[in-house]
Design a protein that fits this description.
D-Maltodextrin-Binding Protein, domain 2; alpha/beta; transcription; Arc Repressor Mutant, subunit A; WH_DNA-bd_sf; DNA-binding transcription factor activity; sequence-specific DNA binding
Length: 308
């Protein structure tokens, strides 16, 4: 037996050959086995012959339309059936795994993150998990995960509800910036106080920017801003059009042509990036796989964008 195992003819062992062997063994003939497998009889005969060549001995004695197993066939039958059972278990396991990562996942995040940060991450998710269909909700309104308006949220604030699972992914730097054309006209601010002599682009009802600048040592009021909007995409386009100096997440600069950072030493508190889901949904294999993928890929995407 040891010499058979060492036979180089067995190096390219093919499970298909064993499957064909068992079909003939159980059916008692090539024609019966072909019918059971839905295969062509010549193909089945060729596969059995190939296995016999690898083993160096016949497995069946052809008698009329039947096939009588040899002593070798009976000797290897139990091991062959064990292989068949193992293959069936593997098939069922793969089927279950495929079912667990097939379905819809609803992800919500801000307009800017949905437009700039998540597209390459979600494209990578589709390559890695083609069975997952993503519903991306681009909204600055905080979708309520508790009411299941979304499965996963990417947010710049930690949720307060204890029923939610949150993982902090990164601290996103906030930078002062302006278009080169604007700076050519108005000059480049050298110290934070110079900003008060520039046209500032700010938020309208959202006071996040005012609080952030105050924390960075530059107290400003709504009156210091010359143009205001709470629409984050419009905000970026205003900066790209040369409307003035504004403040954006650092990774946004990759997508705002001609907009450059100014005052690199200005310290504005960063935005924490949180990945959030409901505690109960976290046990769903589909949501868990998506959550873990985002947790791994979003920090890498942020790092790559910041390096551009």
């Amino acid at each position: 037996m040891s010499s058979t195992l060492a036979d180089p003819r067995l190096d390219a062992f093919d499970w298909t050959l064993v499957r064909s062997f068992l079909a003939v063994l159980d059916a008692g003939s090539l024609s019966g086995a072909a019918k059971r497998l839905g295969a062509h009889q010549p193909t089945l005969s060729r596969q059995v012959a190939q296995l016999e060549a690898q083993l160096g001995a016949p497995l069946f004695e052809r008698t009329g339309r039947g096939a009588t197993p040899t002593a070798l066939a009976l000797a290897i039958a139990d091991d062959a059936r064990a292989m068949q059972e193992g293959a069936e278990r593997l098939r069922h396991r793969l089927t279950r795994a495929r079912a667990e990562t097939t379905g819809d996942v609803r992800i919500t995040t801000s307009q800017v993150a949905a437009s700039y940060l998540l597209p390459p991450v979600l494209a990578a998710l589709q390559l890695a998990e083609p069975g997952i269909r993503v519903e991306l909700v681009a909204s600055n309104a905080l979708s309520n995960l508790i009411r299941r308006e979304a499965d996963i949220a990417v947010r710049m604030a930690r949720p307060a509800q204890g029923s939610l699972v949150a993982r902090k992914l990164a601290d996103i730097p906030i930078v002062a910036c302006a278009h080169r054309d604007y700076l050519a006209r108005a000059g480049t601010p050298e110290v934070p106080g110079d900003l008060l002599r520039h046209r500032l682009v700010g938020y309208d009802r959202d006071e996040t920017m005012v609080r952030g600048l105050a924390a960075g040592g530059l107290p400003v009021t709504r009156e210091n801003f010359h143009i205001l909007t709470d629409d984050q995409l419009a905000y970026g386009r205003l900066l790209a059009a040369g409307a003035g100096v504004g403040f954006v997440a650092g990774y946004n600069l990759s997508f705002l042509s001609g907009v450059v950072q100014v005052l690199p030493d200005l310290r504005i508190p960063p935005l924490p990036c949180w990945l959030v889901t409901h505690r109960e949904i976290r046990g769903n294999p589909l949501v868990r796989r998506t959550f873990d993928f985002l947790a791994e890929q979003i920090p890498a995407a942020l790092e790559g964008m910041s390096a551009r």
